[in-house]
Amino acid sequence: MQKLREECGVFGVFSKNTYEIARSVYYGLFALQHRGQESCGIVVNDRGVYSYYRDAGVVNDVFSAEVLNNLGVGNIAIGHVRYGKQGEKGRINAQPIVVNHIKGNLALANNGSLTNYLELREKLEMQGLVFHSSGDAEIIANIITRERIHTKSIEEAINCAMNIIKGAYSLVVMSATKLVAARDANGIRPLCYGKTEDGDYVVASESCALDSVGARYIRDIAPGEIIIFDVNGVRSILDHCNNCSSSLCLFEYIYFARPDSVMDGVSVHEARIRAGEFLSTELPVDADIIVGVPDSGIDAAIGYSRSSKIPYGVGLIKNKYIGRAFLAPKQSMRETQVKIKLNPVSSTVKDKKIILIDDSIVRGTTSKKIVKLLREAGAKEIHMRLASPPFLHPCYYGTDIASRDCLIACKYSIDEIAKIIGVDTLAYLSVENAIRITGNGNNFCSACFTGQYPTAICEQNRKKKYDYKIGEK
After folding, report:
1. DSSP category for residue 418
2. What is the CATH number of the domain that holds 437?
């Protein structure tokens, strides 16, 4: 793990008209590709008959024109993109999940991670349920299905299930006649919806995916809200709202989200600009030029430049045809990717004192390689500044920090890390300024920085399910 890995991205469309709806989902997933490149899937609903396809790979490879044509027509569809945890192979945890039960069909896609996953799985297994994956989505789908058997509607079943599942989740769920979206009471993972000129409703993890299908962003789904789209329009269930403080993951703004997205009313691009401005006033350094690490370090670098008046320069070029290095499941593959992913611009960095801006350091391996590239290109000094505080604690909400063992900041001091990665100086953004980057005073989950979790974490789950393998205890 060179960078952090986020759980995934979800997308859904509800239309009153029947058409080749899979293509709309395809465009939406393509816009969310940055949230997961290991597997993807689409389910199309044609009057209660589901057609679906999911496989390992990126959206453009998995969904050929032939596959999209075979999905046929429908008026409701959902889709999902997912990263693969280290050691995970194939499509075993690919989503969406499809369930056929006595009251009809259900399809579900989830972004997030349950904090009571192990407890729920063991309980369900003891009741005789058989699982085919190690992901949260199958747990959630089973619980909703069990509730649906004795409730009057899919939304009522989801409402009951939300009393059972704990942690972070942003769901899109499809029944024969409805598209339902739901967000956990803390709102840890993002979810929003919009509407196209043709009257189709669209749900997505990020607003950039709404833009990709021509949908106008309406609003974010509130923490704890269940929102239902059907032929009667849009309505909400608010039973789980305002039961706790909103706690959107702060690292969504720092790294995960695309800069052209808007989350909880705040531009991700502007938030990253502010992070760079805070870095400049908090951690100034004398230098000739500022260089941002593509892509998520660039906005903060621009903010640092604006505030410090030190010119911004393009010092690293990114190969646009390779995914984020951390998404490669094997260490050897990631190391090869770093070499071909970035290339220094010698004319920009030669004989210069550089301020190198990146969003974060996890292990430090990628940073060390980038610094080496810049040194070989002739950089005179390299001062690294990070647009986030140091990662010191595990995450249980969908960011793949399973333990402190994988965090370089837990093992070494700042000066030691600087020496390891080869920079002249190193500094992090403070927690106090990190939570100010949105400028709206909202509460955020910053547990990976502070250790203060917005929800209870059961001791059993502190072992974490990252090591859970099917058929093993």
Report:
1. H
2. 3.40.50.2020
Distance CA 238, CA 159 (A): 9
Q: Are residues 226 and 291 in the same domain?
A: no
Long-range contact pairs involving 368-373 (C-beta distance under 8 Å, separation at least 24)? 368/420, 368/421, 368/422, 369/335, 369/338, 369/339, 370/293, 370/316, 370/338, 370/342, 371/421, 371/422, 371/423, 372/422, 373/316, 373/342, 373/343, 373/344
C-alpha distance from residue 135 to each of 109, 150, 203, 324, 465 (Å) = 11, 25, 22, 22, 9
Residue 402: per-residue pLDDT: 61
Q: Is residue 187 part of a domain?
A: yes
Q: Which residues are catalytically annotated? A: 8
Q: What is the extent of the structural domain holding 331?
A: 266-450
Chain centre to alpha carbon of residue 299: 18
**Could you tell me if residue 467 is inside a domain?**
no
* Reported pTM: 0.91
Residue 366 included in any domain: yes
Omega of the bond prior to 295 within 30 degrees of 0, cis?
A: yes
Total domains, the chain: 2
The sign of the torsion formed by the CA atoms of 175, 177, 179, 185 equals negative
Question: Does 189 lie in the same domain as 326?
Answer: no
Reported as type and span, the H/E element at residue 349 is helix 346-349
The conformation of residue 130, written as its DSSP 8-state character, comes to: -
Measured between its terminal Cα atoms, the distance across the chain in Å is 25
SS3 356: strand
State the pLDDT at residue 326.
43
Predicted local distance difference test score (pLDDT) of residue 457? 84
Q: Pick out the chain residues at pLDDT < 50.
A: 1, 324-327, 329, 465-466, 468-473
> Whole-angstrom Cα distance, residue 310 to residue 230?
54
- What Rg value do the Cα atoms of the chain yield, rounded? 22
CA distances from 428 to 91, 329, 340, 409 (A): 37, 27, 27, 11
247 secondary structure, DSSP code? -
- Which one, of 229, 236, 167, lies nearest residue 14 by Cα? 229
Greatest alpha-carbon span in the chain: 72
pLDDT of residue 469: 46
* pLDDT for res 338: 64
299 and 154 in a common domain: no
pLDDT at residue 1, as a whole number:
41
Which two tokens mark 273?
């600009």
Length of the chain: 473
User: Does residue 457 lie in a domain region?
Assistant: no
